[in-house]
Amino acid sequence: DQQVKQNSPSLSVQEGRISILNCDYTNSMFDYFLWYKKYPAEGPTFLISISSIKDKNEDGRFTVFLNKSAKHLSLHIVPSQPGDSAVYFCAASAGGTSYGKLTFGQGTILTVHP
Amino acid sequence: EADIYQTPRYLVIGTGKKITLECSQTMGHDKMYWYQQDPGMELHLIHYSYGVNSTEKGDLSSESTVSRIRTEHFPLTLESARPSHTSQYLCASSESGGPGGNTIYFGEGSWLTVV
Predict the structure, then answer these.
(1) Contact criterion met (CB < 8 Å) for B48 and A101
(2) CA distance A78 to chain B (A)
(3) Are A102 and B104 inside 8 Å of each other by CB?
(4) How far is A5 from chain B (nearest CA, A)?
(5) Listed residue (B79, B33, B35) closest to B55, CA to CA
(6) Which of A53, A87, A99, A106 should be substituted to probe chain B, the one whose Cβ sees the most B Cβ atoms within 10 Å?
(7) Can you list the pairs that A49-56 forms with residues at least 24 positions away whose Cβ atoms lie under 8 Å?
(8) Which terminus of chain A is less hemmed in, N or C, by CB atoms within 10 Å?
(9) For residue A99, what pLDDT band results from cuts at 50, 70 and 90?
(10) Under 8 Å between Cβ of B106 and B91
(11) Per-run averaged pLDDT (10 residues), chain B, 115 residues
(12) Among candidates A99, A51, A36, which has minimal Cα distance to B43?
């Protein structure tokens, strides 16, 4: 049972446009959500996170939106740059003693064309 | 950013060999983790530690074992490697508590191939 799902295996956008990556979850106990970026042969790099008490968090070109009723979150990258091309993972945790124990989605490959 | 170091980065070994993947962090984080990722798949937690002499198995069953004798060091050992153990192993760490404890920082990973 996959509790965190990224239904789009890949996304291709033009440089300068917006990239929107989506993530759905099923576990109502999840209360903290994160996005990681991963280049081939490297470890994931933390991008941005959001607590369930918020519905939006912004950091530079990256904004994460959380819709708790729909159990859906999205990552917006504006403007997209070729260096953003990587695999993006959505992750969630249930808080409490589960802090740091993350459940990951399968990832979305983002390609930004010059 | 946390400074987490993993060695070796790449390893090819024969079936039945014993291997240890090393992981060290310099941030003084109490919590450390091992995740496993097969190509194109999600990351799965296989081991975690909340401090010295504390180790627990994660959500994905693994034949590997871990130890935590020092805060900064969290090695993973496979006593007898098999081809099914071929994967990327990612070490991570985080702060002790609160929302900051949810943000884990990864090392660059160890790619293990068992032939």
Answers:
(1) yes
(2) 23
(3) yes
(4) 10
(5) B33
(6) A99
(7) A49/B99, A49/B102, A49/B103, A51/B99
(8) N
(9) low
(10) yes
(11) 87 96 94 92 92 91 92 96 95 77 87 96
(12) A36
- Contact status, residue A18 vs residue A78, Cβ threshold 8 Å: yes
Amino acid at A91: A
Question: What is the tens place of the pLDDT at every residue in A42-77?
Answer: 899 999 999 999 999 999 999 999 999 999 999 999
Q: Which tokens sit at B95?
A: 């702060």
Q: pLDDT value at position B81?
A: 95
Question: What is the structure's pLDDT at B41?
Answer: 87
Residue B21 contacts A, CB cutoff 8 Å? no
Condensed to tens digits (0 to 9), the pLDDT of residues A20-46 reads 999 999 999 999 999 999 998 889 999
d(CA B112, CA B60): 17
How far apart are alpha carbons A34 and A51 in whole angstroms? 9
The length of chain A in residues reads 114
- Chain B closest-CA separation from residue A17 CA (Å): 26
Cα–Cα distance for residue pair A1/B18, rounded to 1 Å: 32
Which H or E run includes B110? strand B110-114
